[in-house]
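>> received
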Amino acid sequence: MITLLKRAFDFASRNALVSNGNTYTYGMLTHTSQSVASNLLGDRTDLHEARVAFLVPPSFEYTAVQWGIWGAGGIAVPLCVLHPLPSIQYVLKDTQAETVIAHSDFFDFLRPLEREIGISLVPLEKALTKNTAVLPDVAMDRRAMILYTSGTTSKPKGVVTTHANIEAQITTLVNAWEWEQDDYILNILPLHHVHGIINVMSCALWSGACCEFLPKFDAEKVWSVIASGRLTLFMAVPTIYYKLISFWEIASPEEQQRLSEAASKLRLMVSGSAALPVPVLEKWRSITGQTLLERYGMTEIGMGLSNSYREERRPGHVGLPLPGVEMRLVDTDNNPVGENQPGEFQIKGPSVFKEYWQKEEATQKAFTKDGWFITGDIGMLNDGLYKILGRDSVDIIKSGGYKISALEIEDVLRKHPSVNDCAVVGIPDEEWGETVSACLVSDAESIDFEKLSNWLKEHLPTYKIPRNYILRKELPRNVLGKVTKNDLKKFF
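>> returned
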């Protein structure tokens, strides 16, 4: 039995999950997951890494199904409850999953795939039916989970992690962020992504802490939970903090004070999955007293770097490598770069994924000859802490011989009083290679772009000033709130 499940027996009487108005103990979780495992096994003694997909909203049942798949020796393939059918079909065909456990809300939605690609649909209620069987001994080097990347440059790839990878990802954060049994966290993040699965749910369950699910984000409900006083930690993406700030700003002064005091009592608040705009960090700090802890991670590595839990958390920076994580910053020839010099982050360590599912060539290209994972993210060491400049393929704009960080320009633009939010991209240009182009979100009906450019020249060198602007009501985003810049480019 894998360590995460073993540890749960030690916490049997403690509350593990709060879901749909019900509270579930660790004992209830282990018993239910054992039933799921037994039902999946049937007449078999071991699933031997068979892929089992499941489409279940964030809940106690989601966790029991995931643990049950692991307990039976299978590979868990979480599906996104917000994805359209073609995206689901792609994952099922790519993983060659024969079984899909489905919540009743999604059974009819998935029914066409039963005929089209020959999957076996299993109702969630059937998977949860009480059952007992002898479960296999699952080695730590076995494949445990396949999560799919966002596919910004090609079709999504299945990132395969072993049980040992997952344990390393969990224990690194438990130690760095000092998780304890008495911690209580709210999970409002999608559970087909490492942020929600590992950073929130699995770290809590490893520690004997309690995780409460809120399947759908609602700013009023989140503030209500914060105001209840039961949370000790909170983790979210920048878009959620932006929405929580917006809700706070329209509250009465008395309500603002009540919410601010409640938020100030949490021991840790974390932001990740997308770059945190400095103005959002500063505004959150001004209303709650909390300096959000920023960290850097990927589906392929779990978390790689983090600002300190106890020491300095510098806005716009992602801190230092986490314990057990080896990191280097290199140029295009894999030579180390010096301080204040841009380079690519490369990562080694036990948390790094095993492979891209059935994509041997892509896996080989993802690593250097001496075993470093090539992240594709560009950053620099700035006065002792690392800073992300952007993703080489999306956030680094190559214009007129310069390499320009889109994130740097975005941070400046958000300081303009007329700009609520923005995204900067490079648009192909015959003369310049790419031209810096900005999409702005504003309450104003129009913005004088010439005046805006003149204002920017007070803060940025001329070659970083956008040459193209568009004004929109919102930015295109994926389910984690990350701006999908390749979609955005089509609007120019």
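>> Residues 214 and 226 are 12 Å apart (CA to CA).
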